[in-house]
Description:
Layout: H1 6-12, E1 21-26, H2 28-39, H3 46-50, E2 56-61, H4 63-77, E3 113-118, H5 120-132, H6 139-144, E4 149-154, H7 156-171
Antiparallel strand pairs: 1-2, 3-4
Helix pairs in contact: 1-4
Amino acid sequence: xxxxxxxxxxxxxxxxxxxxxxxxxxxxxxxxxxxxxxxxxxxxxxxxxxxxxxxxxxxxxxxxxxxxxxxxxxxxxxxxxxxxxxxxxxxxxxxxxxxxxxxxxxxxxxxxxxxxxxxxxxxxxxxxxxxxxxxxxxxxxxxxxxxxxxxxxxxxxxxxxxxxxxxxxxxxx
Length: 173
């Protein structure tokens, strides 16, 4: 059983969130303190969550992931967020690069290569099946397939966003 308050447990599941460490990111101790507070059973108000500022340091947590987590938690505390679990592999809607999720259904997408991302060969194999129109590939398999995280892999948020869009297109076939 999670120590997370019930209203947030439905959103984030029993697992504490994990964030990628980047060269310049939010101070890990500050983010961990906020997560601890959420899990304490006395979460801050949505306004206080949104007003939280973190110091940017070397080897800190990925800023986009933390910002997305904070926004989802705040929206849920206000009652405006859907009850979908947050996982480290969940699609990142904060893709500001314009690549990955915007590719046409029949074109191979281009993803950024990051320090820690999805194994490029695994991503390529899965997306090759999708782009070939493999009839045995289901939307659930496309989004549910666990991809290994490696050094110098594809940007996870971009890949997950593309996989989610591709799964929606598969369901419409």
